[in-house]
Design the sequence.
């Protein structure tokens, strides 16, 4: 059955241009990189697939089959949703929340083009440092309205806020900025005095229809509040911690929750996200990777494949650095019309960008298979 999450069910059928179907098998250098199929251990990192090809403004002109068409589009912390016109739209960090559009209906492969921004007034109405450069949008359709939860902060700061903008159409110029939903700082009420109010994720429980917001980065890691029915405020006394890395600097962030076949899955990014220096990269395993835990309740406790609670340092690594993929993270989940789930994320392509620059985090995606109740990624 399909997963339920904050995004509408999405159709991923390509309508031409770059192949007859997005389900077409890779060729040439891609043989052997299709994921867990054919491997004895589907949970091994040897089973991690390469990202599916995405086309967009950063496509390369290189005729080398290993890199041609691999530019795709720079989307840091992507949030993808199906628009009312049948096209996919992505929202991403920087540029007053950049809006990009895939040119072919029903295809996440692209061709992706930037069409504008959410906060076209030049900044958020939130009076915090970082208001002109919002991060980590999380966009969902609820009823007939699109909700964009965005973050206002600065790198290394806990003085942060999560804001909300809404639109009926998704298009640039149509968004209303409602300002702050909640904020964090050392003088706030618990847990907002010990957490970091960025990286919001809306999740509406498909069983109870209760709305929750997951959030957090580094400081005490990932927490959750229940939201008010209008989705514009938190219920302060409903806070619960979902995940914690007890080892400093506690590099967990970017929570995303989905539901599949009786299980609630909490995905998150772990490690160093940004500021990579090709001559002094983080120690292997300390760069971004995508991890997950599961629970029978959206309130937790979430555990990994070994049964370790995420609040006690657990976490199953679903996807990490391999081949030319480095530091994947900023992930989200959507469901296609066949009932198959997709994980999308940003990553560094080390062939195209040996400098590991922050301004070329490419959009990638893979199908999700559930094996023994645990997500495994596949190219096919």
Sequence:
């Amino acid at each position: 059955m399909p997963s339920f999450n904050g995004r509408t069910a999405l159709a991923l059928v390509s309508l031409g241009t770059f192949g007859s179907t997005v389900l077409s098998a890779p060729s040439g250098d891609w043989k052997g990189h299709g994921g867990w199929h054919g491997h004895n251990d589907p949970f091994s990192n040897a089973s991690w697939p390469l990202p599916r090809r995405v086309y967009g403004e950063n496509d390369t002109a290189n005729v080398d089959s290993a890199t041609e068409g691999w530019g795709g589009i720079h989307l840091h912390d992507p949030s993808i949703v199906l628009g009312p016109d049948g096209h996919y739209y992505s929202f991403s960090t920087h540029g007053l929340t950049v809006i990009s559009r895939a040119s072919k209906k029903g295809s996440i492969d692209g061709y992706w083009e930037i069409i504008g921004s959410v906060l076209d007034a030049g900044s958020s109405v939130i009076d915090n440092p970082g208001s002109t450069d919002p991060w980590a949008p999380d966009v969902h359709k609820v009823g007939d309205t699109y909700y964009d939860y965005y973050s206002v902060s600065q790198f290394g700061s806990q003085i942060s806020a999560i804001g909300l903008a809404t639109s009926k159409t998704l298009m640039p110029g149509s968004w209303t900025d409602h300002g702050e939903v909640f904020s964090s700082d050392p003088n706030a009420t618990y847990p907002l005095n010990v957490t970091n109010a960025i990286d919001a994720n809306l999740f509406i429980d498909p069983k109870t229809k209760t709305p929750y917001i997951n959030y957090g980065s580094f400081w005490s890691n990932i927490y959750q509040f229940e939201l008010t029915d209008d989705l514009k405020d938190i219920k302060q006394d409903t806070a619960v911690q979902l995940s914690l890395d007890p080892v400093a600097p506690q590099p967990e962030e970017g929570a995303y929750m989905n539901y599949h076949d009786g299980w609630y899955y909490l995905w998150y990014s772990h490690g160093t996200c940004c500021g990579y220096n090709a001559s002094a990269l983080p120690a292997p395993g300390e760069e971004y990777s995508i991890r997950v835990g599961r629970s029978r309740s959206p309130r937790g406790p979430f555990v990994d494949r070994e049964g370790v609670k995420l609040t006690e340092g657990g976490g199953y690594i679903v996807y990490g650095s391999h081949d030319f993929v480095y530091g994947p993270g900023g992930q989200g989940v959507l469901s296609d019309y066949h009932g198959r789930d997709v994980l999308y994320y940003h990553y560094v392509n080390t062939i195209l960008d040996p400098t590991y620059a922050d301004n070329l985090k490419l959009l990638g995606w893979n199908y999700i298979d559930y094996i023994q109740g645990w997500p495994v990624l596949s190219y096919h």
